[in-house]
Amino acid sequence: MKDPGFQPADPRPIEAPRERRARHFPRSGRLLLVAVLLFAAFAGFAGFVAGVVMLGVTRERAWGWPALGCLGVFVLGRALVFVLADALTCPLCHGTVMKERRCRKHDDAFRLWPLSYRASAVLSVLGQGMFRCMYCGTLWRLGGKRRE
Q1: What is the pTM of this model?
Q2: Which residues of 5-14 are buried (b: 16+ CB within 10 A; e: fewer)?
């Protein structure tokens, strides 16, 4: 009998690359608080600008009080974010999640064009309950640990 030699195996379908699921972020409560404070600070700044514009247009002094209140919301929100955001680091790369550094950002980092990486992360946290680390590109989700 003659040896058949090399015989190729049956063709297999090409498998799609595996997509990693989002990991659980351990300090979800603090991250959500910082995201809400950053959003409130942005809204406070927008309200302050609107109040100053209305004060200049209408010349009514009553617009000064809402403008001052919105400025207070902005300053208080940014001060609290400054204190709380230092402790929010990515468990994998140890980069600060809600403070942008001058480091090079990962290719997979999420960013909406007119916004910064941090503002895009805030919108992602508030809208979807997950975010992507801007330094290592890892997808993180908020909430409790998933039980399987």
Answers
A1: 0.79
A2: eeeeeeeeee
